[in-house]
Design goal:
This protein has about 80 residues and is mainly alpha-helical. It has one helix and two strands. It has a two-stranded antiparallel ribbon with strand order 1-2. It is rod-shaped.
Length: about 80
């Protein structure tokens, strides 16, 4: 009987730790989405970026999303 209780507790602890990593993965994805940056296509203010889409305060053109460069170079081969 004691072995069944210990095995059940071990199983539950492993199962609960799996949920934690899923929550962390979901949080990471949320941060990636919220890190979009926008800039003026005419570069009126140089390399200045904005956190939200809108219009350039100088030339009034629509801000464009900045393409984020890939930071993982493991797949890159010379």
């Amino acid at each position: 009987m004691n072995k069944i209780i210990v095995a059940s507790l071990l199983f539950l602890s492993v199962a609960c730790s799996g949920n934690k990593s899923e929550k962390e993965a979901a949080t990471t994805e949320t941060h990636a989405v919220s890190e979009k940056k926008y800039t003026c296509p005419m570069k009126c203010e140089g390399e200045k970026t904005y956190a939200e889409a809108g219009k350039c305060p100088v030339c009034k053109m629509e801000l464009q999303e900045v393409a984020m460069a890939e930071t993982d170079s493991t797949g890159h081969q010379h």
